[in-house]
């Protein structure tokens, strides 16, 4: 399959360098592409599409009035990352998660970082994600953020930047695992020849981490799901199946004398660890939202008594707030006395007068984000928006400045994709997954999200993005 006409314009392309030469870690795959016919590549893509449907790799889009389940399109061309690149990412992510965990322990206990004025007290204590019932708590083994999915992008110079920290219920890992199985079948020989690091042991590592949270020799573990109508239900059921643990929802659980039990056909069975995939506010109607129909009355008291462990711990959401994100470099310096290995995207906090003035004056050049929105919603991409949209967001910022941050429009890197017109460049981001048990481990692969429309920077699945298998090479 020829790559003439492949254009990444002024963006950093991960297969070709600025002179049009193949980067060394793409060399072997490029040779394969040159030998493969368009018909062969299209057949591989068709087979991948069928495999996804057969596996049920779907997600729901809540705002979609049709209420349809959608397939997350998997592009047949893998994204390839060299081992040296990965080692830097790995070191930077471990550093970041270590610091954020110390931050969470501090703000729910001694609050030294707030007293020392490194992070504004009002930013944390006034956040809807700061859970006062967690004050004074230390979760099992002192770990708050057990499972993290951190979003990264690359700029026009190829430098990686942290775009977002996802410490609540990061999704997408099942797509990483299932996509790998599909792509391995598409390129069995090439996969072995390239020396791709495995991701298939993720469920075993996840289970080991969850078991580590309990002091029992054989703890009972479950995945807590909101139910079949949740957008990530495929992932909840998939991970429970792969780990060989129970998939439960609120009605399956009961609390007696601050101990949590599953209702089974053989009677009540105590459960020790829950990988929860429901938000904090829905967890316990007696402690948080009294109208929650998804939660388990009394489960938070069981947690405080040390009779159940949660991954992630309640209260972690305050550390991945988009406004707190701007302070993470200072958080790393404060707790670890180190400079960040991976930098943030430069961020303007609209809560600060000088930053706000700059954003209002330069809104046409910036990406403006609502601090409590996700999935690409509540966002303005200045250069691609109309004057009316600029004016609307200016007013939103003036009305509620604390609710917005802004960042320069970084040009996401491009990678090769199979399109209707052959192989062409499309923009991507990267979401590696990090587990924190007896040590911090970065899984050597990631969910690569891809903007399927030419020139688009929107990679979110809920807004038409797709995905790729990510190959991290041994050498």
UniProtKB/TrEMBL annotation:
Protein name: Uncharacterized conserved protein, circularly permuted ATPgrasp superfamily
Domain Circularly permuted ATP-grasp type per the UniProt entry, residue ranges: 78-451
The organism's taxonomic lineage, starting at the top: Bacteria, Pseudomonadati, Bacteroidota, Cytophagia, Cytophagales
Annotated PANTHER family: BLR5612 PROTEIN, SLL1039 PROTEIN
Domain of life: Bacteria
Organism the protein comes from: Algoriphagus faecimaris
InterPro entries assigned to the protein according to its UniProt record, in alphabetical order: ATP-dep_Glu-Cys_Ligase-2, CP_ATPgrasp_2, UCP005522
Coiled-coil positions: none
